[in-house]
Write a structure and sequence with these properties.
The chain is an alpha/beta fold and 462 residues long. It contains 14 helices and 19 strands. The strands form five sheets. Strands 2-1-3-4-5-6 form a six-stranded parallel β-sheet, with helices on both faces. The chain has a five-stranded mixed beta barrel with strand order 15-16-17-19-18. It has a three-stranded parallel β-sheet with strand order 7-10-11, with helices on both faces. Strand 10 (204-208), helix 9 (227-235) and strand 11 (242-246) form a beta-alpha-beta unit. The protein is globular and about 60 Å long. It binds iron/sulfur cluster (SF4).
């Protein structure tokens, strides 16, 4: 029997990293590792890093300085702490991490975390393993399944990775280099994982992938399945009431997927569809391989299929060569679509990407000024969308206790947080809520009618 040791995983970045962190914890559970919420008393600290945002590597090195001090303090008490760096910064930096931060015991990329027990054993023997290979075998085949208790502790909304990597090579992005080529998981393995989550009380599943709608995993008949077909199959699994998927590329919004937004009642009316810029010149320089008109045409087809669809997006301002006229096109696109929210960032060059070598880099002051104008425009759209919810009644899936006693927080179909005065036994339930008040980032409401079913003892509040 393994002795119990404490594991702390800190996830940076996107939902894919959160999912990966959970699967790492599941893989280490049979070795006796239990998760803890703080690095202070952990025996193993994993930093699961992200390379998308600015100064990602610097942030990791500064976090490593903090963890090194914890390791030194533990050593003074005669306790060994192992430090691991995982994820996309690990993939990109490799050996360099151990050279710059000698307190690190092991480094492994996103395609290697199923080998974590072996890597850890080597680290404990005093090696400093670095594993950033892209293996030929499917890491998902080697991962331990989460226990029912672990699934329940993570809440009523679950994530399942359906594909990884990307072949699009946008000129600003490191993903094709750090996550590798696009690979889709087979349908049956995904559905098995969804069934497991449903069996443990999960009510909402988000299918995730760096380029999720490029999904083409093998179906039971041996033929590739589209994301729309996969969603349809997932929608008939008992217990699953809501489906979402993220993150999508406009070029992969095929007819079937657009139709699914009208045909599948469990597919929630919210879609994150990054556009990055409203200028055709900049979209071409970014190698997005779609135009502004293409994007608007997709939006109007989606809204024809599902009129109440809420759209969110990603924007980059100050891409090399972006003029004020290009930026004005981006601002006008925000107004034309009427996004319910969006993430927006200043362009920052990623070493090794084509964008980093482009001439006409935009100065920081201009980027900051454009970003604040863009964010003001997005905030106006978001406020308008939230205001349009006032007085409406829709189903909310309750996820956790609210900030105040007697309050629970859930998600609307459009993914907004909704705060309601209701008992904690509602967590895990879906109930109709009438929206009585809106704030910039969340909604407030009251229960509109009786529950869709009796509260169960499932979910984190139970
Ligand atoms: S489609 Fe997304 S993940 Fe792929 S290269 Fe472009 S931004 Fe990166």
């Amino acid at each position: 029997m393994n002795e119990t040791r404490k594991l702390f995983v800190k996830s940076f970045g996107c939902q894919m990293n959160v999912y990966d962190s959970r699967r790492m914890a599941d893989t280490l559970a049979p070795q006796g590792y239990v998760e803890t919420t703080t690095a202070d008393d952990a025996d193993l600290v994993i930093l699961n890093t992200c390379h998308i945002r600015e100064k990602a590597a610097e942030k990791v090195y500064s976090e490593l300085g903090r963890v090194r001090r914890l390791k030194e303090a533990a050593a003074a008490d005669g306790r060994r702490v192992v430090i691991a760096v995982a994820g996309c910064v690990a993939q990109a930096e490799g050996e360099e991490i151990i050279r710059r931060a000698p307190a690190v015991d092991l480094v492994f990329g996103p395609q290697s975390y199923h080998r974590l027990p072996q890597l850890l054993a080597r680290a404990e023997r005093g090696d400093k393993p670095v594993d950033t290979e892209f293996p030929l075998d499917d890491k998902f085949d080697h991962l331990a399944a989460p226990s029912t208790a672990a699934i329940r502790a993570r809440g009523v909304s679950g994530f399942v990775t359906v594909q990884e990597g990307c072949d699009k090579f946008c000129t600003f992005c490191v993903v094709p280099y750090t996550r590798g080529a696009e690979v889709s998981r087979p349908v049956d393995k995904i559905l098995f994982e969804v069934e497991q989550l449903a069996g443990a009380g999960v009510r909402e599943i988000t299918l995730i992938g760096q380029n999720v709608n490029a999904y083409h995993g093998g179906g039971p008949d041996g033929e590739p399945s589209s994301l729309a077909q996969l969603l349809e199959r997932a929608s008939v699994i008992g217990g699953i009431e809501r489906l979402r998927y993220t993150t999508s590329h406009p070029r992969d919004m095929d007819d079937d997927l657009i139709a699914a937004h009208g045909d599948l009642p469990k597919l929630m009316p919210q879609l994150h569809l990054p556009v990055q810029s409203g200028s055709d010149r900049i979209l071409a320089a970014m190698n997005r391989r779609h135009t502004r008109a293409d994007y608007l045409a997709i939006v109007s087809r989606l809204r024809a299929a599902r009129p109440d669809l809420a759209l969110t997006s990603d924007f980059i301002v100050g891409f090399p060569g972006e003029t004020e006229a290009d930026f004005a096109e981006t601002l006008s696109l925000v107004g034309a679509v009427g996004f319910s929210g969006a993430f927006s960032f200043k362009y920052s060059p990623r070493p090794g990407t084509p964008g980093a070598d482009l001439p006409d880099q935009v100065d920081e002051e201009t980027k900051s000024e454009r970003l604040s104008r863009l964010q003001a425009a997005i905030d106006r759209c978001q406020a308008e969308f939230n205001r349009s919810c006032l007085g409406r009644t829709f189903d909310v899936l309750f996820e956790k206790r609210g900030r105040y006693d007697g309050q629970v927080v859930g998600r609307s179909p459009y993914l907004q947080p909704v705060q309601v005065t209701a008992p904690a036994a509602m967590i895990g339930e879906i109930a109709a809520v009438t929206i009585t008040e809106v704030a910039s980032n969340s909604l407030f409401g009251t229960l509109a009618r009786a529950l869709t079913r009796e509260p169960s003892l499932v979910g984190p509040g139970a």
